[in-house]
Specification:
Elements: H1 2-17, H2 25-44, H3 50-73, H4 78-97, H5 115-121, H6 127-139, H7 144-150, H8 156-168, E1 172-175, E2 182-185
Antiparallel strand pairs: 1-2
Length: 187
């Protein structure tokens, strides 16, 4: 799952930069740096050496600067860059934390940590995700329509995406089918 995440993020860079002007040198610089980060992350998993850690931090910082330059050019919707910046900041934070814990791991996949650690590390959860987990902790189980009442400004589709995200992090479980689908904590 970790390699898959890194690869998908790099492919997202390629999709975004495909919209840059044809001969724009920044396009290739961003792609090259994203490839270097991808290789570094794969080599660094589960725990980076100090040299790889230093290079990853430097490369993610350079990518962030490239994103700022490209965003100012208005070639692509700025939301694309906001997403990429958020994800690379997440990686940067994981790399910085990697040797600060006894069981250090860069893994963004939930399978390598015990269940309480998964929730405590929070996986860049949105406040809404945290509220969903609180409600599931209180109620035991709930359906999407229960959360629509709590979050009336959020669409059903967005709530389903939130649940998919939490499912992929192995924080919650899904039981049932179609209209009888319930969600509960995996812990």
């Amino acid at each position: 799952m970790y390699k898959e995440y890194c690869l998908k993020l790099t492919l997202a860079i390629y999709r975004v930069t495909a919209r840059f002007p044809k001969d724009e040198p920044l396009k290739n610089k961003i792609r090259e740096k994203a490839n270097e980060v991808l290789v570094g992350l794969i080599l660094a998993n589960p725990c980076p050496s100090p040299l790889i850690k230093k290079k990853l931090l430097k490369d993610t910082e350079i990518l962030d600067n490239y994103f700022q330059i490209a965003q100012n050019q208005n070639w692509v919707d700025s939301r694309n860059f906001l997403f990429l910046e958020k994800e690379y900041d997440r990686i940067k934070n994981r790399v910085e934390e990697a040797d600060q814990t006894p069981q250090s791991s860069l893994s963004l996949a939930a399978g390598r940590m015990d269940k309480t650690d998964r929730v405590n590390r929070a996986y860049a959860l949105l406040p809404r995700h945290k509220r969903i987990l609180e409600i599931l902790r209180e109620k035991g189980k709930a359906q999407v329509h229960d959360f629509q009442k709590i979050f009336p400004e959020i669409t059903k589709r967005t709530l389903r995406r939130d649940f998919e995200f939490l499912l992929h992090q192995n924080i919650i479980k899904r039981n049932g089918e179609k209209n009888n689908t319930f969600y509960k904590l995996a812990i």
